[in-house]
Amino acid sequence: MSLADTLSIITPTEREIVITRTFDAPRQRVFDAWTKPELLRRWFGPRGHVLVVCEVDLRVGGTWRYVLRGPGGSEMLLHGVFREIVAPVRLVSTEHNVDCDAADGAETVITTTFVEHAGRTTMTGQISYPSADIRDAVLRSGMRRGVGEAYDRLAEVLAATGGPAA
Fold it and tell me: Quick one: 84 exposed, middle or buried, by C-beta within 10 A (0-12, 13-18, 19+)?
């Protein structure tokens, strides 16, 4: 299956991006891969990138912090706070992308939902930016390729941890 068949990125409002992908795995496994550092380290980021720091305090008010290192050695710091956790159905958190010129250090709010049907899970991430300019800069930054590759890696992790993944 090609990336175009499995990944949807839309802009429903001037300040939002909605990313959707269906995985051939139960919701709990997808939620675990999204929230457990030992699994996140295996897939988070585009191909060639490594999550060298992965800290997750999975509770409302808890923080998360990632440092993603690229193939040339450049690093990107991402961090935020969990606002809502309804495991394994929904996560709401803030995100600060400190090293991304496109995001300009602005706080975004990400709502991620996990919906299971017949053993497959559709994961939808709704990202709300503080302005249309920041959202548009993120879209121009190569986000589609990066997210696509990361989600392909996630599908591979899901396949390796319990069955096929789309």
Answer: exposed
Mean pLDDT of the chain: 91
Contact assessment for residue 80 and residue 72, using Cβ atoms and an 8 Å cutoff: no
- Domain ranges for the chain: 3-160
Q: Is the model's pLDDT at 1 over the cut of 80?
A: no
Fold of 3-160: Alpha-D-Glucose-1,6-Bisphosphate; Chain A, domain 4 (3.30.530)
Query: What backbone torsions phi and psi does residue 121 show, to the nearest 5 degrees?
Result: -120, 125
Q: Above 60 in pLDDT, residue 5?
A: no
Confidence of residue 87 (pLDDT cuts 50, 70, 90): very high
